[in-house]
Amino acid sequence: ETGVTQSPTHLIKTRGQQVTLRCSSQSGHNTVSWYQQALGQGPQFIFQYYREEENGRGNFPPRFSGLQFPNYSSELNVNALELDDSALYLCASKTSGWNEQFFGPGTRLTVL
Amino acid sequence: AQSVTQLDSHVSVSEGTPVLLRCNYSSSYSPSLFWYVQHPNKGLQLLLKYTSAATLVKGINGFEAEFKKSETSFHLTKPSAHMSDAAEYFCVVSGAGGTSYGKLTFGQGTILTVHP
Fold this sequence. Notes:
Distance between the termini of chain A: 33 Å
Structural class of chain A: mainly beta
Number of helices of chain B: 0
Number of strands of chain A: 11
Oligomer: heterodimer
Shape of chain B: globular
Order of helices and strands of chain A: EEEEEEEEEEE
Largest sheet of chain A: 7 strands, mixed
Radius of gyration of chain B: 14 Å
Distance between the termini of chain B: 41 Å
Radius of gyration of chain A: 13 Å
Strand content of chain A: over 45%
Order of helices and strands of chain B: EEEEEEEEEEEE
Helix content of chain A: under 10%
Largest sheet of chain B: 6 strands, mixed
Number of helices of chain A: 0
Helix content of chain B: under 10%
């Protein structure tokens, strides 16, 4: 049991819509990262938040945005959904420094 | 820049036989390397990590990996496969410094099948 939780478990949206995914980090963790895992692929880094500030971003367009709250929980927002956004979205948390990242079970997003 | 190449997309073994999952990495600095496992409909679980200490790293469930700088490899092994080892395995390198700090770069994954 990693302690990282994500909601919802599954989500179906249509192209052009907006979606918000949520993540509660493990107790004591102040850093949250989001990853996109397309079917048959390894997870791809979207961005990382540390103490409510984005401090790293992967190769994703600006319509992918995020927030981190004072309790270190986090949201991933995706605007103008495209069919290729269909994927498993994973949240991971860790303490600052080089400690390992703990992953949540993910949210499966389907865009029709 | 950093990258990871997993050399086999699928590996099939019989229960009780050795497991070898191959991984090569590329990194412009001393890397931190990890192996994660993903069972169907479950989150990623850390098997083991290398962070510039001993080059032979032991992990959970009998897995181990050896860091070979000269070969830029970090292969995952297990002496005897169990049915419960069937899953997808990811080799991962961690970024350092600047906007790469904390970023994990995953390989494409290796699906391990274990036959009775």
